[in-house]
Amino acid sequence: MLRFGIKSAILGSAVYYTVDKGVWKDSATTSELYEELEKGVSPYVGEFKKQIPYELPPLPSNDRLTYLFKYYWNSGVKATFRFLVDLPTHATNAASKSYNYISAALEAAESTSTTSQEKAK
Q1: Which H or E element spans position 89?
Q2: What's the distance, CA 44 to chain centroid?
Q3: Which of 13, 22, 69, 71 is packed most tightly, with the most Cβ within 10 A?
């Protein structure tokens, strides 16, 4: 219960701070706040980057992201419709296999019951 209270207090403080600073207002206010934050943090980030030898790879260009988004979206749409087109075939195959399996199980049960009845005579 104490952990929940602490987490709630931190979340509430974060929300209050962002509302107080104007993060959720219009985009001009948010842009000003971002520039202010960047100016305040940039000296520390520069020192921090020098301490870490790892460099992040560059982000893909906007054209590449657009292409990838369209490609994967279209692949998903094609796969969905391929599944829907093949659904009657899959349903028929599943029903046929189920019928054959149940029929075989019933025939096996009947043959064992007739065999046991003949032995009882």
Answers
A1: helix 62-120
A2: 35
A3: 22
CA distances from 46 to 33, 34, 41, 52 (A): 20, 17, 9, 10
Length of the chain: 121
For Cα atoms 31, 17, 45, give the angle at the middle one, nearest 5 degrees: 60
Angle at 21 between CA 15 and CA 22, to 5 degrees: 90
- Judged by DSSP in three states, 59 sits in coil
pLDDT tens for residues 4-48?
Answer: 899 999 999 999 988 888 888 888 888 888 888 888 888 777 777
Residue 13: both structure tokens together: 């403080």
Number of helices (H) and strands (E), helices first, in the chain? Answer: 3, 0
Q: Are 7 and 15 in contact (CB under 8 A)?
A: no
